[in-house]
Amino acid sequence: MIRATRKRLILDAQSLQGVRVIDVRVDGHRVWSTDVPESASDRVEFLWPPALKSRLAGIATVSITDAAMGEILAEQKNVRFGWSRQRLELTDARGRWLAMTKWDRLGPVLEGRSATTGKALLDNGRALVDLLVAKGFDLYMVGGTLLGIVRDGALLPHDDDLDFAFLCPADNPLDLGLVSYDMERTLLAHGYTVVRHSLAHLEIEFFDDEGQPDHYIDIFTGFFRDGLYCQPFALRGPEVVQEDLLPTRPREVQGVELPEPANPSAWLEYAYGKDWRHPDPTFKFITPKATKNRFETWFGVFNRGRVYWDKHYLEYTEPVGVGSGEQAVERFLRDVPAGARILDLGCGDGRWTAALASRGNRVTGVDYSHEALRVARSTVRDGNPDFRYLNLNDRAALLEFGAWMLGTGDEWFIFAHHSVQSLTKTNRQNIYLLLDLVLRGRGFADIHSDIDLSRRYVHGQPSTWHLPSEWLEKELQGHPLRRELVHRTRRRDHRQLRRVNVERIRRIEGTVRAGDTVFARELAALDKKETIA
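Above: the chain sequence. Below: its structure as tokens.
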């Protein structure tokens, strides 16, 4: 027996006897896996995960299967969630079925996608291995990739990427970062799109024939320090020794050979515990706080918030904009000269970028979400606006971009619409350094920020963050920048009216430009193909 509502699933406990993990399927598509609790009653209740619950609207067949055996345990046809009479489709804007991932988010996974996606993932993995091994990087499979291939002989159906690590001979965090940047330069030189998560973690993005994000491959830096094998972002312990990793050996999957560690069982037990041979789609890494703090201190976190925005923009094919930007654009354009060179800092889906460009201005929009940029590029007409990938959390990348801005010889005006407030306090310093570098003449930056916290605040959702004026004033201290409050307004955020300040930032003329000190050193490091710690 099964009863499905918008709040919960109710199952007969008898039908779950001996079952450890269940898969929940909607019209045959797995959308969620969960543990079966021990129950003394005659029924078991499961609450829908919030991300999934918010999408339950329509009619569907809900079935429950044993995750290990695939056997159907219970099924209810024509379940109606809410008032909609339409068929329920848990898909993104591109028609890809979504499922709960190991990070408790809805996202596209391999199961339910075309077989060509998995084949392309494997082929791209093989090409990546060939390139990097030839350059001296010893890659080996790790994570869910290694788990699925060793245990099941295939990629995990609920996975969405390939995971590799390489063993770095260094053990000093700065030296490890240098090696990672060397790898990044190699990949960029061969045409790859690289997303940097930290000084020890790269993500390689791949796109379909239409230029839309399709799949990705993670590369982690592995190293030994103080007798412990470390693999940021989550693993550190004595269970693995160098002989367990190298030399690698080939493992074939779907006709493609990929390198596995010398002793794959040792790595799998290290990551997943002694029970790794038993399928558990609900498994989650639990990283000790000390390990997390150590790795974040050593290598930084350049990826904070990006996955949230990626998942947000999965739902869109056309730009909608964040906040009420029409009047913000009008006020900004009143104060910039005709034909101005404008930077939309954190452009999102490009709606406001396109509005800025529609008046004859030359506009560049930057963002670190490839899903947002996918939507934004639908607004491009005759090359304007120009959209580029840029991670504002990555100081090295931001300063390199600032050097490009200076190289244009243009006077820049910067529109930052609810983007600076979506950065951490530490990473907002990157923005102030950029403003110090690029603002000149009449140039200014308008920073639009909510100054009160969202009533729906969630730490992992940057759209609910805020940036009070007193914070901005304090954070600007020590920078040759002055702020001026030019406008106050309110915007509707769901059922809340949030107060918004527009702060105009200009460079204080006559002060020593940071380029004579910190920028000179850091840009020189970039010129020498070195990294910035």
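Confidence is low (pLDDT under 50) at residues 529-533.
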